[in-house]
Amino acid sequence: MGLPDGLVARAPRLTDAAAIFELLAASNTRLTGSPDATLAGVAAGLTAPGFQRETDGWLIVDDADRAVNFGAVVLGRHADLMICGPDSPGADWLLDSAITRVTRGTRLEIAVLRQNEPLRALITSRGFVRGTSYFQMRVDHTAPIAGPEPPAGVALTSPYDEETRRAAYGVLADGFADQAADAMPPYDEWPGSGVTLATLDGRPVAAIVTENTYAETDHCGYVARLAVLPEARGRGLGRFFLQHTFATDAAAGLTGTMLDVDSNNPTPALGLYESVGLRTTRVSDDWSLVVE
């Protein structure tokens, strides 16, 4: 399918970051009431490793070179797809271009907010199927929070040395071994930042990874990963780590803490999160297509 009359597609330039941000922010605001994006994040995405602007991104513009829609695919172990405006001109062309760009046999994946009916209708028309769902949760911090006491025998450390860093990676890899969609990357590709390791009587048993993903857009801290090994469960380590993070975020002046939980998580994570005050704020579904 071609583009509507008066529109053309070209590769995005670094100077297009502001225009792409406006498209993305407008679409997200219509869906959730929040831009859920930053100009810095969009600019970083245009220079991200693995993203080739000349072949993997498409900016649809009118005859005055004004941005109308944008789509991109990031190639890796699988291919991640994004389309700014599923109900904007050229959305079907962007999707078909991404499918054509991906090598046969590659899994093309996209996360879709539950309320994004136009995008869901578009991708299902091309054969995408729904996989796991993710619940984004948040707790608000309206006052200082006292840090919790660690469980008996538990000590915390940040992995500044190689041995501790590898120990933290091992805990996270084991903790997410049953969740294929969230499996850890190879050690050499793992940033290793924002991680805290917990030891029980000297043995590595739990780890948490925090990021600043939502610090600018939502003024919140973010728990990217939390893993407790089976032999250490039932001791309150998960609850302790979360409450410790809440106290740290509140002390930093952040107004909340957020995280995402996979509906296929084999541990009773959702119940734990709700018990410490986290509430679901949005739900998204992973959709995928194996390109033939």
Summarize the structure.
By secondary structure, the chain is of the alpha+beta class. It has helices at residues 17-32, 39-46, 53-56, 91-101, 117-124, 162-175, 237-251, 269-275, and strands at residues 8-10, 57-61, 67-75, 79-83, 107-113, 129-140, 154-157, 195-200, 203-211, 220-228, 256-262, 279-290. The radius of gyration is 21 Å and the shape is elongated.
As a whole number of angstroms, the C-alpha radius of gyration is: 21 Å
Query: Major β-sheet, in short?
Result: 12 strands, mixed
Helix content: 25-40%
CATH homologous superfamily designation of the largest domain: Gcn5-related N-acetyltransferase (GNAT)
What is the count of helical runs?
8
Strand content: 25-35%
**Mean pLDDT score, rounded?**
92
User: Which architecture of the largest domain does the CATH hierarchy give at level 2?
Assistant: 3-Layer(aba) Sandwich
GO molecular function, one term: acyltransferase activity, transferring groups other than amino-acyl groups
Domain N-acetyltransferase: 155-292
Keywords: Transferase
InterPro entries: Acyl_CoA_acyltransferase, GNAT_dom
Outline the secondary-structure elements:
Blueprint: E1 8-10, H1 17-32, H2 39-46, H3 53-56, E2 57-61, E3 67-75, E4 79-83, H4 91-101, E5 107-113, H5 117-124, E6 129-140, E7 154-157, H6 162-175, E8 195-200, E9 203-211, E10 220-228, H7 237-251, E11 256-262, H8 269-275, E12 279-290
Parallel strand pairs: 4-5, 10-11
Antiparallel strand pairs: 1-2, 2-3, 3-4, 5-12, 6-11, 6-12, 7-8, 8-9, 9-10
Helix pairs in contact: 1-2
Protein name: GNAT superfamily N-acetyltransferase
Keywords: Transferase
Domain N-acetyltransferase: 155-292
